[in-house]
User: Fold these one by one.
Assistant:
Number 1:
Amino acid sequence: MLRVLTLATLFPSGARPTLGVFVERQAQGLAAVEGVALEVVAPIGLPAGPLARHPHYNDLRALPEREVRNGLIVHRPRYRVAPWFGQSRTARAIAEALMPMIGEIQERFPFDVIDAEFFWPDGPVAMRLARALGAPFSIKARGGDIDHWGKRPAIARQIVEAAAAADGLLAVSEALRGDMALLGIDPAKVKVHRTGIDLDRFRPGDRAAAKQALGVTGPLLVTAGALIPRKGQAVAIAALARIPQAVLLIVGGGPDRPKLERLARERGVAERVRFLGSRPHEELPGLLAAADVMVLPTAFEGIANVWVESLACGTPVVTCDVGGAREAIDRPEAGRLVTRNEGAVAQAVGELLADQPDPAEVRKAAERFSWDRNAAELRDHLAGLVR
């Protein structure tokens, strides 16, 4: 029996149901492999002192410290967020808060290995826990944890230290492995571990009927992701002004929404932009399959899950030539890779609308991705660290 303790600071909950759904799906796949037992630790950060009682945190405070979610045992220990100390102290704060609970878990569930799901802050946290407990640990790089946090010197040093101490390393794409090398991480130590996709849920449908149900008669575009600058919704809105009669669905929530709504009004496309907010992941296949093109003018990614999900739905992707984009958009039918500006995005979308690829051909680009393969490779990787 291989006993795995999965550590993930981004993990779905009743308060944040779409946060890190791909981590939950990976954990479910691994737990389903014969001979594997798994529990999840998903720390929750709350501010110190009276701020923790602010209504904004009510839903997080209400979460149980231990629950069974979708068949997984999930522990949710609290740690204190102290912004005045700086984000570089986050990993230490989490590790100190987790140590008592991890010891209790180990007595009941003597795990063989710690599987950290992100390089920051999960990697340095796992390093501290593993040192204290004498357990091997692995860290997975997913994109922003390297390309964003790796640009902050105090955090980058901790990332590189954790990578050197880890017994194994994973990356979601070959391109991300190269980015890790530039940061000072030994690429020979890194295995590529691609995301999976549920090809039964994400599949082409009757696009015309789906668009009609949404009240759309012309071209339909969709973008999905947190409303933050790096995801590029502003570029997608600006490009929409150059694509007559098209409607853009924006799926996701985040701090940029007021700014994006204002931009849509300024560019004269407010009536053609629909902000859907955060939607349950179960609704995403229908929205992606309804669209003619999925647009994600992102600044950086490892391999965006929504790229693969769109392709599985037969919907071509227009995105930027960053991270592992070439590993997903690997054929003309799959979409276009463009520079991050409205003109390039609009031109690429126009090409795909003028000569729409066969959804079955688009889907072939996603058929290489499998949760069964993802789980088997992860099991072999972690078991190898224990041996």
Number 2:
Amino acid sequence: MTQTDADPPIRLRVEGVSLAFGDRQALRDVTFSLAMGECLAFIGPSGCGTSSMLKCINRMHDATPTARMTGRILLDGHDINAADIDPPLLRRRLGWVAQHPDPFAWSVFDNVAYGPRLHGLVEDGAPMAAHVRDCLIRAHLWDEVGDRLDCPGVELSLGQQQRLCIARALGTFPDILLMDEPCGSLDPIATRAIEGLLMTLKGQTAMIVITHNFGQARRIADRVAFFHTGTLREIGPTERVFTAPRDPLCAAFLRGVFG
């Protein structure tokens, strides 16, 4: 697809990325882009490569001796695997939210303040207090925990813990949020709260969200990418992919033939 002046700027480009762990091929020649403020949903059957792709973007395979990646991943035009890139500084720009809530065993306040404090992004005191409040508001959590910021994050409900993890990810002013099934372990009420949060973040922060919930993908995503056995088989506007998929495997997957 050709970029025009009217299109939002491209934040992320993935160009011909393949990934192997020894003899096992996890990704094969994956290419796609992510625009500023866009929400892109990854869908596909279990083991299709979506989590592996997300972890490549966050350089989470760096410490795996058998991992070998080829191709390029460009963040604002810069190769994230270049020799002069510091992985911790890269990850500051890529907010990560896992499937299972994983708040630190600290207070709600310190969960959110940890990243900006570590990277020297916000001064302690009043500026940090205002920043934590803003992140919790953006995560739709302030009204529930604003009067108990000293409460350990692990004592919140699961849905609140996941929104705390999103607030924590927002704390470092990320360019992109990477979410690996953020509602996968939550009940329907908590899932609805997270979806509402993601809808408010659209247009502000670019996001890639892995989901196995077709309805969720249709509700939150601007575009959908279908993976199968490590290959990106189809990518396009959400409604077009769901109503008129061009790839036969994608069509079969959406009909429930396999998954």
Number 3:
Amino acid sequence: MTQPRKFLVIADGSDESRVAAMFAARRARHSGGAVTAMAVVEPADFEHWLGVGEAIRREAIEAAEAVLESLAEDIEAETGERPELLLREGETVECLRTIVDADEAIAILVLGADSSSDNPGPLVSALARGRGLFTTRNIPVTVVPGCLKREEIKALA
């Protein structure tokens, strides 16, 4: 049996992340695919005292786990399947490249664009500037407007 194609979403706690996850869940459900949600804990800039830096890191990991769990509940409600959850530490773009290169089943990256400001978000901005997100393995990227309502997502996906 072949592994279903995976829709990868970035779980960062933002509204647009939830919209992207809903879109990915609907697409996965209608295409026989699955959803993978990844949260990334970026390195803290605080390194003055080791104990304080470690406490900040632990808090960031706990917050990322909570975001992943909340998003997983939303995805599971839509698909009926528990999504794969990934928690990584490092720079978001590097973690994204590593995951895409390592997992051939990841077929589509679904990003939510921030529609409330002039900046659509760091990953969408990187794509728009043509710098690309991937190194050895390219996959399609779907950018979902973060302002879409549930009914609009249902109609599209």
